[in-house]
Specification:
Helix content of chain B: under 10%
Radius of gyration of chain B: 13 Å
Largest sheet of chain A: 6 strands, mixed
Number of helices of chain A: 0
Radius of gyration of chain A: 13 Å
Number of strands of chain B: 11
Oligomer: heterodimer
Order of helices and strands of chain B: EEEEEEEEEEE
Helix content of chain A: under 10%
Largest sheet of chain B: 7 strands, mixed
Distance between the termini of chain A: 40 Å
Shape of chain B: globular
Shape of chain A: globular
Strand order of the largest sheet of chain A: 2-10-9-4-5-6
Strand content of chain A: over 45%
Chain lengths: 115, 109
């Protein structure tokens, strides 16, 4: 059974930094194309970033230059380093895998950017 | 940046059939856009229904079908059930950059 568990969300001031983690079980993050998706309160889904199995990385324009996606295969964990956070980054952040026949989502972690 | 368009809201009667569509501002949606469909119920995480237009997840009910038609990605629900009331999102790839549609709020009434 596959589980993706996001952690690291918290209340943080504008301009601050935060690192989100997505611990995987039942699949290997290195063997999957892994994504981060966010959802602001009461809004729709927004794709944030993807890391492919071949290590190609892409970002949404809204976070490019501020966010960094990475993975640690030894810990089977996906990360999202978020710098220079803005109020508009407030959202639930989900990780998911976009590879193979089973495409799973975590339950999300809430990031609140506010002074 | 490309814009992905979905119907903001649709209503279907219990047992009825409804089709949700997903279009792109750049032109026809094709298999090269690897369209996905997701279902999200209030207070829950999204779950994947289809990827690459028509590849169904093991948990996707048989009453759902995904396909490409007329330059759009489409999701048809045949025999709607009350539990199908949810927000549905499509997602399209543009050479590595992915863009979600705004979502369709489906009401079963």
């Amino acid at each position: 059974e596959v589980h993706l568990v996001e952690t690291g969300g918290e209340l943080i001031q504008p301009g601050g930094s935060l690192r989100l983690s997505c611990a995987a079980s039942g699949l290997t993050v290195g063997g999957n194309n892994m994504v981060w998706v966010r959802q602001a309160p009461g809004k729709g889904l927004e794709w944030v970033s993807i890391i492919w199995t071949d290590n190609n990385i892409y970002y949404a324009e809204s976070v490019r230059g501020r966010f960094t996606i990475s993975r640690d295969d030894s810990k089977n964990t996906l990360y999202l380093q978020m710098n220079s956070l803005r109020v508009e980054d407030t959202a639930v952040y989900y990780c998911a895998n976009f590879y193979g026949s089973g495409r799973y989502w975590g339950h999300g972690t809430l990031v609140t950017v506010s002074s | 940046q490309a814009v992905v368009t979905q119907e903001p809201s649709l209503t279907v009667s219990p047992g009825g059939t409804v089709t949700l569509t997903c279009g792109s501002s750049t032109g026809p949606v094709t298999s090269s856009h690897y369209p996905h469909w997701f279902q999200q119920k209030p207070g829950q995480a999204p779950r994947t229904l289809f990827y690459d237009a028509n590849y169904k997840q093991s948990w996707t009910p048989a009453r759902f079908s995904g396909y490409l038609l007329g330059g759009k990605a489409a999701l048809t629900l045949s025999g709607a059930q009350p539990e199908d009331e949810a927000e549905y999102y499509c997602l399209v790839s543009y050479s590595g950059i992915w863009v979600f549609g705004g979502g369709t709020k489906l009401t079963v009434l």
